[in-house]
């Protein structure tokens, strides 16, 4: 098994196209063509984590946070980032990061928090727009299913919890092959009419090239007729944060105790309690303050995230309870999320959770 097989699988799950513009997800260190001896899954990559990978014969570290974020101009070991990269290269340990692309998918980081809290009816809090395209292709009647199957295989036709979604309408296609053409139907120099289906499917825009390649391979025409449209629709499966409901409403005090227990927290920073039951909960792993208004619009009673600054707590304005549970604490279960995914896909090598606590924030209790 090559490293690129693992990274390709991760990117089919959390496409790099869905990372934020400032991010640096993907293979950061290492040879994608190297054989995998084992995978170590971690939240952060530190020197201790690289040592652990070496000790456990894992030559691929899969992390949530990229060790190289803003770029490196020198590699002389002057800080922990450079030392980690140098140690990984010297020991042939590859480092891969699934960061905001994993934040931005349904079933990703925030959905893992929702799972830990037992939330139901979980959906993306703030879906992203302009990530979808539509393909309209004209196909002879007898090739309709063949072409549709190829498009589905390439990733088209997924809308929410439904797959193999399409629209078709019948009509008549006309054409006249010119000299030099090799028509599948008809003859050069003669006008032709063919009963055809206009098929429409929606697909993630980043899949445009494989989508067009799939339709051309499946279509019998020398020059298939098709149209591509950029859509402004929101993609309900891609976006920031998550929101869901507790099976039963809890008092605010009971919910805070429940949150502390389920997320294994030492402390919770929160805004004033509102004296109302808690049922709907919005969550965002890591620094999610930018989603405050979205959580309020979603009708959340509590918004769980991290990295709130003092003055930002005032923004709750008694419309929702902000709970800051800590950056590490909100994302540490991402390790389980990645491990569970890889174990479902691969069983020929070890996928191990790192035992290193990489939290740089300590509490004196």
Automatic annotation (TrEMBL):
InterPro entries: DUF34/NIF3, DUF34/NIF3_bac, DUF34/NIF3_sf, N-reg_PII/ATP_PRibTrfase_C
Gene Ontology molecular-function annotations: metal ion binding
GO cellular component: cytoplasm
Record has Ion transport as a keyword: no
Annotated residues for binding of a divalent metal cation 2: 64
Keywords: Metal-binding
Binding-site positions, a divalent metal cation 1: 65, 103, 327, 331
Subunit record text: Homohexamer.
The family this protein is said to belong to: Belongs to the GTP cyclohydrolase I type 2/NIF3 family.
Protein name listed in UniProt: GTP cyclohydrolase 1 type 2 homolog
Lineage: Bacteria, Pseudomonadati, Bacteroidota, Cytophagia, Cytophagales
């Amino acid at each position: 098994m090559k490293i690129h097989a693992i990274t390709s699988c991760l990117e089919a799950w959390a496409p790099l196209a869905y990372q934020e513009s400032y991010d640096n997800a993907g293979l950061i260190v290492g040879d994608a063509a190297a054989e995998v001896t084992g995978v170590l899954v971690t939240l952060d990559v530190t020197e201790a984590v690289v040592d652990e990978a070496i000790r456990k014969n894992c030559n691929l570290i899969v992390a949530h946070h990229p060790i190289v974020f803003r770029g490196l101009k020198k590699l002389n070991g002057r800080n922990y980032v450079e030392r980690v990269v140098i140690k990984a290269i010297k020991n042939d340990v590859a480092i891969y990061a699934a960061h905001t692309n994993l934040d931005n998918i349904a079933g990703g980081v925030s959905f893992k928090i929702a799972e830990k809290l037992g939330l139901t009816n979980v959906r993306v809090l703030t879906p992203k727009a302009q990530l979808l395209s539509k393909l309209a292709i004209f196909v002879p009647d007898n090739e309709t299913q063949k072409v549709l199957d190829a498009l589905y295989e390439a990733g088209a036709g997924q809308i929410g919890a439904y797959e193999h979604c399409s629209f078709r309408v019948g009509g008549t296609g006309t054409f006249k092959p010119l000299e030099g053409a090799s028509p599948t139907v008809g003859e050069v120099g003669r006008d032709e009419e063919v009963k055809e289906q206009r098929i429409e499917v929606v697909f993630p825009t980043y899949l445009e090239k494989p989508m067009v390649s799939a339709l051309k391979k499946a279509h019998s025409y020398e020059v298939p007729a098709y149209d591509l449209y950029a859509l402004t629709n929101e993609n309900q499966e891609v976006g920031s944060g998550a929101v869901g409901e507790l099976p039963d409403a809890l008092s605010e005090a009971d919910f805070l105790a429940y949150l502390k227990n389920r997320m294994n927290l030492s402390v919770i920073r929160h805004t004033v309690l509102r004296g109302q039951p808690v049922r709907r909960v919005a969550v965002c792993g890591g620094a999610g303050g930018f989603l405050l208004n979205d959580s309020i619009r979603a009708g959340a009673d509590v918004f769980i995230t991290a990295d709130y600054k003092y003055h930002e707590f005032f923004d709750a304005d008694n419309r929702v309870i902000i709970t800051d549970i800590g950056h590490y604490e909100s994302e540490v279960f991402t390790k389980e999320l990645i491990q569970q995914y890889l174990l479902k896909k691969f069983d020929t090598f070890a996928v191990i959770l790192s035992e290193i606590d990489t939290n740089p924030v300590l509490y004196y209790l």
